[in-house]
Amino acid sequence: MTYEKKGDTLHVTLHRDFNLLTARKVRRLCRDVDVVRIDLSRSKFVDTEGIIVLYELIQAGKKVRLIHPPPIFFEVVRILGLEEIFRPEALVA
Amino acid sequence: MDIDTQLTLKNKVSVIGSVTDFTYKWGMNAGLREEDAVRLSLAVDELVTDVVLFAFGDEEGRFDVSYRWSPSSVEIIVHEFGEPFDPEFHRYDPERALREGNFEGAGFEVIRHLVDDFVFINKGRGGKEFRLVKKTTGEHIAEMLVDERPMPEAPPARETTYVIEPVHEEDAEDVAKLIYRTYGYTYVKEDLYFPKKIALALEREEKFGVITRTSEGEAVGYFAVLRTTDSRIGEVGEAVVAVPHRHRGIMTRMLRRLIEMSRERGLLGLFGEAVTVHTISQKANAKFDMQSTALLLADFPTAKYKGLIESYPQDVSIVIDFLPLHRIETAGRYLPPAYRDILTDLYRLLGITVHDLPPEAPSLAERSEIDLQISYEYKHAVLVVRTYGEDLTDRLRHTLQSLRAEGLHAVYLDLPLDDPVTKTVVPDLHDCGFVFSGLMPLFHHERDFLRLQKVYERLDFDLIHVYSESAHRIKDLIARELQ
After folding, report:
1. Quick one: B393 and B474 in the same domain?
2. Largest interatomic CA distance in chain B
3. Chain A nearest-CA residue for B98
4. Could you give the strand order of the β-sheet that contains A2-6, starting from the edge strand earlier in sequence?
5. What pLDDT digit, counting tens, does each position of B356-373 carry?
6. Considering its fold, how many domains does chain B have in total?
7. What's the pLDDT score for residue B188?
8. What strands lie across the sheet with B316-324, from one edge to the other?
9. In sequence order, what DSSP letters do the residues of B14-42 get, joined into one string?
């Protein structure tokens, strides 16, 4: 994972799947920013640990933008019935 | 379906990424489409994450992830000895997640949607097992032959000559066409309608066989041996001759060639699974000197036999017919008294004089080693006892409970005949509801097994048609035990 903080924005690029290990790091890094941009071009999936972190960020009022989320991401969102929070038009950069 | 690969992992967060990456690559190599390989790896990620986080509390622990392959599906088994847990008691609630941010059970909810079967088996002291099954897909031959309907072809000229050759991956499409043109949609082994699955099975050496072509190159016959067990034996499981080319000795010539090829590959025996809806297949096996050694009740639901026996009112039972390829004259085995006579006679049919070894004081391990193979489509399971332990009946009772909850119709239990415990354990297994099934020669790791069975379906024995004298004797014994 690589990341860069500019002002109130954190830009994270994942080099693997968004899983427990990654989710823990993202949670730590996002504490003092308002905008989080996560590049998922290299991730095959975002698991439920990743979904939970994204949920927490959104609930905390942070602006979350996903870049190239894998197709299975919105399949998982549908499975979990979370469409009202994870709306593609609001989430995908 | 034998185990392809097994990983033993520590309950550390760092293993999760590695095991999911491996699963993705393994799934791709196993013939899954890329999106299905992703789904399977995500399902494994969710399961392994749960094991790492919760199964062992704060203790250090290890767990196994096993990978099994067949042409029609892949199966991943996660086995651990952690704290008691049942996913049924941790159901996901989307309202609760949205309202409270409580995502309990979300991982299992995702798993259930991403795989075709998700099975939890509580083995008591034997730990817990989670099984994920994903079916492989491919283009059905009927989609490749859109305008074609199964129909008999013109009869060949009397002087037509045939060439029988080993079948290769490049022949896969011809094999699928031959099956489709000959049987329409009614052939039991559905994998044979998918050229990709045939090619993959040949590539992985899960089967080998012969193809018969006319001198013009038309494929008119196919016969294969499948490596369906974890032993050096093969199942004579796929055979077809185009209707216009029947009664010309093609099947016999192909089988002779297959026996030669089986010997060249070091196989010790061949077996066939013959349905008991009629006796046609059993008679054909008998013609090739195969001997009936077991009767498996309710081996598969009648729906699997579509088009042929739609009116058959019960699950289909099968006879195991066996042909030894490597002769041995005598053998010592621990024969349970209840089955000593019939097992002795079944061995004699295979050309083996068996000596009933005297009982020995049992030396039991703390834990039994029992392999479990579930056939989800056929709705049966096979439990193979590798090593007897003190927990045998406890393990079996827990496992049977879990399997019953999964809706299986029959459970077969294989007991090694070279282990002295087999001689004395049968009465306890009768108490668990098992009855005789037969002798499974060389069926696991080149060892002979006594097969018992427990059937959850009601069966009318008058509808189970057997041919050979030994099959009749086995059937009569089972009927008596079930009374």
Report:
1. yes
2. 80
3. A82
4. A2-6, A9-13, A35-39, A63-67
5. 999 988 788 888 999 999
6. 3
7. 78
8. B162-166, B207-214, B219-226, B233-241, B269-275, B316-324, B291-300, B435-444, B447-455, B410-416, B380-387, B369-375
9. THHHHHHHHHHHHHHHTT--HHHHHHHHH
Interchain CB contact of A58 with B (< 8 Å): no
Is the pLDDT higher at B8 or at B281? Answer: B8
| Domains observed in chain A | 2-91 (3.30.750.24)
Reported as a single tens digit per residue, the pLDDT across B379-431 is 999 999 999 999 999 999 999 999 998 899 999 999 999 999 999 999 999 99
List b or e across B394-409, with b for residues whose CB sees 16 or more CB atoms inside 10 angstroms. ebbebbbebbeeeebb
Predicted local distance difference test score (pLDDT) of residue B305: 59
Q: How far apart are CA B338 and CA B343, in angstroms?
A: 10
Give the residue from B153, B165, B160, B81 showing the smallest Cα distance to B123. B81
Q: Which residue of A has its CA nearest to B113?
A: A79
Q: Are the beta carbons of B75 and A45 closer than 8 angstroms? A: no
What are the pLDDT digits (tens) for B147-177?
Answer: 665 555 677 777 789 999 999 999 999 999 9
User: How many CB pairs below 8 Å do chains A and B form together?
Assistant: 77
Tell me the residues of chain A between 29 and 48 that have a Cβ less than 8 Å away from chain B: 44-45, 47-48
Statement: the pTM of the whole predicted model exceeds 0.90: no
Residue-wise pLDDT tens digits, B62-108: 999 999 998 889 999 999 998 877 888 889 999 999 999 999 999 99
To the nearest whole Å, the CA of A44 is away from the closest chain B CA by: 7
Query: Testing the interface with A: which of B16, B34, B99, B102 to mutate, by most A Cβ within 10 A?
Result: B16
CATH number of residue B191's parent domain: 3.40.630.30
- Does residue B355 fall inside a structural domain? yes
Read off the pLDDT band of B309 (50, 70, 90).
Answer: low
Contact B42 A49 (CB under 8 A): no
List, in sequence order, every residue forming a beta bridge with B319; answer none if it has no partner: B274, B295
Report the Cα A60 to chain-centroid distance in Å: 13
Are the C-beta atoms of residues B450 and B439 closer than 8 Å to each other?
A: yes
User: Under 8 Å CB-to-CB from A2, ≥6 apart: which residues?
Assistant: A12, A13, A15
Task: Report yes or no on B276 lying in a domain.
Answer: no
Confidence band of B1 (pLDDT split at 50, 70, 90):
low
Name the token pair of B176: 């699928």
Domain that holds residue B263: 142-267
Q: Given CB atoms, is B101 within the 8 Å cutoff of chain A?
A: yes
| B332 and B474 belong to one structural domain | yes
